[in-house]
Amino acid sequence: MGCVCMKYRVKHEDPTILAAETCFNETEVKALYELFRQLSSSLVDDGYISKEEFLLGLFRNRKEQNLFANRMFQLFDANNDGFIGFGEFVRSLSIFHPDAPRSDKVGFAFQLYDIWQTGFIEPEEVKEMILALLNESNLVLSDDVIDVIVDKTFKDADSNKDGKIDMKEWDEFVAHNPILMKNMTIPHLMDLT
Prior knowledge:
Elements: H1 15-21, H2 26-40, E1 49-50, H3 51-59, H4 67-76, E2 83-84, H5 86-94, H6 102-113, H7 123-136, H8 143-157, H9 167-176
Antiparallel strand pairs: 1-2
Helix pairs in contact: 1-2, 4-6, 6-9, 7-8
């Protein structure tokens, strides 16, 4: 008898429950299932989105590796099993819905930058994320310019001057710099049906 891999324990959550827990209505959840099904079967038809399928959906290239994409996958994979299930997909996308609470968006963005998952954003994490985003955009800035950006960020955000940004400081920082939250809303999520 062969080994049964854990990823094949496909369990699709009730659209009514997902609609109650997210910014999507039941019809939109069902539409998201079609998108999920396409992504989750793009390489292996197993009912889950693998990291490679996630990268393929984001970049049209499953070999593309960058810190931003890796962090996004980690945050979508809420149960840390290496795959994104349908419920995880819908709940994570809900954060990007125009009607999602600001606090959810701020918290998700904070987690994105908290690469080492310490509960704080440290200068090295900001620098790594800047470098990853520049690389993804094929832009080049000198180390001096990047250091100035990181220093300015911490000068503005680290109000208690302890060398790291906590959630309260992050919330205040993005409140004064709303452009930082621009990518946390995907208007097309209002038009799923």
